[in-house]
Amino acid sequence: MSTNQEDIQALVRNRTYSAGFVTDVDSETLPPGLNEDVVRAISARKQEPEWLLEFRLKAYRRWLKMTEPKWAHVHYPPIDYQAVSYYSAPKSMKDAPKSLDEVDPKLLETYKKLGIPLREQEMLAGVQPQVAVDVVFDSVSVGTTFRKKLAEAGVIFCSISEAVREHPELVRKYLGTVVPFGDNFYAALNSAVFTDGSFVFIPKGVRCPMELSTYFRINERNTGQFERTLIIAEESSHVSYLEGCTAPQRDENQLHAAVVELVALDDAEIKYSTVQNWYPGDENGVGGIFNFVTKRGDCRGPRSKISWTQVETGSAVTWKYPSCILRGDDSVGEFYSVALTHHRQQADTGTKMIHIGKRTKSTIVSKGIAAGHGQQAYRGLVRVLPGAEGARNYTQCDSLLIGDKCGAHTFPYTEIRNPSAILEHEATTSKIGEDQLFYARSRGIAEEDAVSMIVNGFCKDVFKELPMEFAVEAQKLLSVSLEGSVG
Amino acid sequence: MLDIQNLHARIEGKDILQGIDLRIGAGEVHAIMGPNGSGKSTLSKLLAGHEDYTITDGTVSFDGADLLELNPEERAAKGIFLGFQYPVEIPGVSNMVFLKAALNAQRKIRGEKELDAADFLAWVKHRVKQMQMNPAMLSRGVNEGFSGGEKKRNEILQMLVLEPKLMVLDETDSGLDIDALKIVADGINLMRSKERSVLLVTHYQRLLDYVKPDYVHVLAGGRIVKSGGPELALELEEKGYGWIQQAA
Ligand SMILES: Nc1ncnc2c1ncn2[C@@H]1O[C@H](COP(=O)(O)OP(=O)(O)OP(=O)(O)O)[C@@H](O)[C@H]1O
Ligand SMILES: [Mg+2]
Fold this sequence. Notes:
The structure holds two protein chains of two kinds.
Chain A: H1 5-14, E1 27-29, H2 36-45, H3 50-65, E2 88-90, H4 105-113, H5 118-123, E3 131-137, E4 140-144, H6 147-152, E5 156-159, H7 160-166, H8 168-174, H9 185-193, E6 198-202, E7 211-217, E8 228-233, E9 238-246, E10 253-256, E11 259-264, E12 269-276, E13 288-299, E14 305-312, E15 317-320, E16 323-326, E17 332-341, E18 346-355, E19 361-371, E20 375-384, E21 392-402, E22 407-416, E23 422-431, H10 434-442, H11 447-458, H12 460-463, H13 468-481
Parallel strand pairs in A: 3-7, 6-8, 7-9, 8-11, 9-12, 10-13, 11-13, 12-14, 13-15, 13-16, 14-17, 15-18, 16-18, 17-19, 18-20, 19-21, 20-22, 21-23
Antiparallel strand pairs in A: 1-2, 3-4, 5-6
Helix pairs in contact in A: 2-3, 3-9, 7-8, 10-11
Chain B: E1 2-11, E2 14-24, E3 29-33, H1 40-48, E4 54-62, E5 65-66, H2 72-78, E6 80-83, E7 90-94, H3 95-109, H4 117-130, E8 141-142, H5 148-162, E9 166-170, H6 178-191, E10 197-201, H7 205-210, E11 215-220, E12 223-228, H8 230-239, H9 242-247
Helix pairs in contact in B: 2-3, 5-6
The complex binds adenosine-5'-triphosphate (ATP) and magnesium ion (MG).
């Protein structure tokens, strides 16, 4: 591998994060710092009802008593929570846009650069595969497409702030029921200061007529993003939801602590896919997003199903365990994950499957890829409670190492309190084969392309779970993230 | 076409090739035979650009170019193909995707137009048929779960799709059943022409019955110790290698 070492070094240096631009919008940002007044200010700015302010304050007071979790296999400098600004909104959004026509053209331009042309999407409806998009820029949602068509089906898809205004009874009924306000340090912080996020409600018996998707973007310097997403699928309904995330390239770290709650009632199905490409920092580990996220789905009704698919290529540090509470009998939980860490990136990610109902089934497929000095940990818990007669779990956990300065670790935990449970576990760790690379190159395929081809092959079992359009995007993202990884 | 002079190569401090001289002209078929561990695979992989070997002396030119200056993908584009003694599995990457990427990468390096999906599909299906393979294999991972014989046949399929100028086939006949050997030999013969050359590494006469060599060489201890016509292979089959090594 030494002959083209120099070329590869050059590639590493030239590697650019294509989503790394900053948009120059006039915004209104709260000064850094966190106290009860800030929590009240956020709530007031969003004209929230009293009960929500109470929820925030309870969370804030709990958070004060909590300490940051330290058990994850990641290292980062201490975060000064008083140096973060907890609210930033583009000024032109003050009176919240009613339609895309009222959205600041600069924002539309930003999303276009990211490959999310909101306006064209609406215009081309019917030509392209239909995807309804909600976008969250720093702390506020800037517009949701395809509203009318969704409304006809009875589907509610809007920002969580709007849901609080328009459908307070639904938000109040479900918010915090899957991830309680004091669940963990970051969830408590989020519950206190969350600013925006998406809200989805699929009524009984409805199959959502299109993919729903939210793009999150952090733009302002020194702001944290604390979005909150709540998806409710009533009896026998079905929805597929995708979130994408990007941030500008900045030298300082930025904090992102989201909470996602999913509720699936009887026979309902929620498919939740994530393509996470927050700015990862540069090759020396300068900058990048700290991504501390709590995602949990509650299979509340019998035969319900929640499926998480995630492609995690961004962020400097990732701490994330999308989980399923399999409460309903015969409910099904799935977790398909590709996590890639390159340069100095670190990820500690995995899932929790909590089997409560009878004959509940879970599947975990985790593919971790580490390159450069990247560090990768899979952490998964399968817990079978005494009542979960006939529970089943299948776990497959594979790691692929590129180079010899990176690392992969697996921490599988099981707690089985019902002897009828059947668990299968497979784990492999392999180095990307020199022989595979030589084989591909001897057929004419350039080394970088060969690496990305081999890695994509390794991830195939997860990619096939993604909606078609996004599978292609995920493959490209993986190839870009791997640039400069060989040599 | 290929001119190897005084080639010395070493791996992990061990000298494997100790002065190989070999010239292969356009349209010729050469066979290399020799005891286990004599350096046949080393020579084959070295020609394809394997980077683990250190070349301590000698030159290799191919079509007038200094082959040792080129990386594996450039050599492939120039027309060198190695049929591996142990073909490698690439799980999750379909044969179709792999072959299309390979052919178009070569065409791109050569400044030719890349084939679109439809043209490529027609071309690869034509070759699959010639190799009497099940087209369903195209959507399976590269050699993933293939039997030993299937892997070898897949090497020849790749060769037919890529249409190289110099075909270096390292024990492609090993592990093939009688019918498969015939199909593989037919595949090789299909590719023979005045412009294309073949270097067959083999332990057995069987393949040479189907693919008639112009020259046979014996590689022992990292050197070509004897060269002759097709009759040399028959003699080896009868007497083994002992008599040559004693004479050498
Ligand atoms: N990485 C390595 N380190 C040390 N020795 C090696 C290495 N690779 C090959 N060799 C040695 O080089 C010699 C030549 O190996 P090579 O594979 O070329 O033999 P061959 O002629 O193809 O044998 P066979 O007929 O069994 O296929 C052998 O002695 C082998 O052990
Ligand atoms: Mg050999």
